[in-house]
Amino acid sequence: MAVIALDLGGTRIKFGLVENGQLLASANVAVSSKSFAGAMPVIEAEIGKLLAETGQENIEGIGMAFPTIVDSDRMRLLYKYVKYNDANDLDLAGWAKEKWGTTLVMENDARAALVGEWQYGAGRATDNLVMVTIGTGVGSAALINGRLIKGSHYLAGNLGGHMAVNFDGVRCNCGNVGCLESEASSWALPELLKRQPGYAKSPFSEGEKPDFETVFRLANEGEHFAAAVRERSLEAWATGILNLVYAYDPERVVIGGGVMKSADVILPYLQNKINQAAWLPENAVEVVAAQQPDWAGVLGMAYLAGN
Ligand SMILES: [Zn+2]
After folding, report:
1. Are 121 and 288 in contact (CB under 8 A)?
2. How many whole angstroms from 27 Cα to the centroid of ligand 1?
3. The domain 3-112+295-306 belongs to what CATH superfamily?
4. How far is the CA of 299 from the centre of ligand 1 (A)?
5. Which of 109, 167, 216, 228 is least enclosed by beta carbons within 10 angstroms?
6. CATH for 122-289?
7. Residues with CB under 5 A from ligand 1 (ion)
């Protein structure tokens, strides 16, 4: 039987009707409501469309991935997230039962994406996996011996973006200093560019867009300031990922996120760093690109909801 899976992002919700890992129908919808109660009518309507489109009447389960820390045993969001922070006040399990006659499973979105890659993407054929998503922020999740690790506060593996890579670094929005995320992510990049020596005469002070796509493009063209920023960012990611390798001892690290448009530069750099710097046998850890960049969260959530 099929399951319904949702991947709730900051501004959009992805929906999938999934059977045996196959996305039979999908939707990607902008949601303006900041509250979960406000989004419920949209969710009900979209699920109704997916069921009608595929002629399904019964579903085996519903899974929802949230962009915050999730207690997946009691189905609670543990950190207040700017959006949907009323979800804990609602009886979501009762809602799923009443509307669709099925059970609800909730999980963190990075864990759902890791499960999607593990079952249907770049993480196949290993049960020891770390996934890192480098985009607006840096997300992570870890699987050891085929089990998602969660810990006593459900954050094990999830906060790789807030492991410090520079104790002398910039302050992060989490309160710590020198996190991987505050040293090399899209939200932090505009300020990082300004702190880099030579900024005043760089293309970025003259109007080039302060994003990683531009940094990599200019660096490829041989522009020195961008090349230095690229090098610093690669080194930050490599340091953070090496920390995760030591923490979780994976066989493979899957990298996803917006910066992977430059995978041709990023993957060899990370692989080299791990080969040279890690206290591991040669080639013990493989660094690969995500294979399901758009739908890993939905596919992984469907897997969790169907098991
Ligand atoms: Zn942080």
Report:
1. no
2. 32
3. ATPase, nucleotide binding domain (3.30.420.40)
4. 28
5. 167
6. 3.30.420.40
7. 162, 172, 174, 176, 179
